[in-house]
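Quick one, tokens below:
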């Protein structure tokens, strides 16, 4: 029996516990904060028990032994283990706000036993930046999920949709977003479609979205919109086979317009349908999901 292992890493405060709960709900046996030294024996034990789905969360509390993980993952892959690497991230401002709201200390902050700050104490921003450096190698190997604008329920749904895709095939994720709220930090490719005709300025379309038929019909009538869709599709068709051969698990294609409501949403819907026949394809509308 092939064991499916989901390894969750990421920034403190980015939602790893929420992600782990989503995986537990999906039938995974979950372990939080497993020391890297125990990864190989733990997986061996689960294989002996004929487990089929396991999820493990690791974080910066195991910083000294995290460099062991890439070699361990290579060894596990040679032993018929399907591995998904998910890295949860968020902007520094978002993480600072979350620590302030929960009144929790960052794991890399230091206090003396009497609770007084020492000259080794780091404010939360310094701690976050140090954490980014320590987790850099794992981030490079993982599918990144930007949780800055995701509520807990949406993050759980997003995790479940990701792990529902076959582990052995490349999954293509199309995501719409608003440039005014920032570019998704996890995007592999970003396309700017703000130059296209904008339904926002049409009275009957302003309050609708690119998922509505009237907006789709309006946009599809413009040659520039069709040309943009075709050019994005041509680029992806040219390079997805090579990305798949490079053993990529996920590729995220982010399409942005001004408000993330009409043009980008329409193109994501259109391209998702076009690519679904040849690739495992998912979609996400960042701004619509935050309402």
């Amino acid at each position: 029996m092939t064991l499916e292992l989901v390894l969750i890493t990421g920034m403190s405060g980015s939602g790893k516990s929420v992600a782990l709960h989503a995986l537990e709900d999906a039938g995974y046996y979950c372990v939080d904060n497993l020391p890297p030294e125990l990864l190989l024996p733990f997986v061996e034990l689960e294989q002996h028990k004929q487990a089929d789905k396991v999820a493990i969360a690791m974080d910066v509390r195991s910083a000294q032994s995290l460099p062991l993980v890439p070699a361990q993952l290579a060894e596990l892959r040679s032993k018929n283990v399907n591995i998904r690497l998910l890295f949860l991230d968020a902007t520094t401002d978002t993480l600072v706000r979350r620590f302030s709201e929960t009144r929790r200390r960052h794991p890399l902050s230091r206090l003396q036993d009497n609770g007084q700050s020492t000259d080794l104490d780091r404010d939360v921003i310094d701690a976050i930046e140090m954490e980014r450096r320590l987790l850099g190698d794992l981030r490079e190997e993982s599918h990144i999920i930007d949780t800055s604008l995701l509520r807990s329920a949406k993050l759980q749904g997003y995790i479940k949709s990701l792990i529902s895709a076959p582990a052995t095939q490349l999954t293509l994720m199309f995501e719409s977003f608003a440039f005014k709220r920032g570019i998704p930090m996890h995007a592999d490719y970003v396309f700017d479609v703000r130059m296209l005709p904008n339904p926002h300025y049409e009275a009957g379309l302003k309050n609708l979205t690119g998922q509505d038929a009237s907006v789709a019909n309006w946009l599809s009538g413009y040659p520039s919109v069709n040309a943009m869709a075709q050019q994005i599709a041509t680029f992806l068709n040219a390079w997805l086979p090579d990305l798949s051969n490079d053993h990529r698990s996920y590729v995220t294609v982010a399409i942005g317009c001004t408000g993330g409501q009409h043009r980008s949403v329409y193109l994501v819907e259109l391209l998702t349908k076009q690519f679904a026949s040849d690739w495992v394809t998912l979609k996400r509308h960042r701004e619509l999901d935050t309402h």
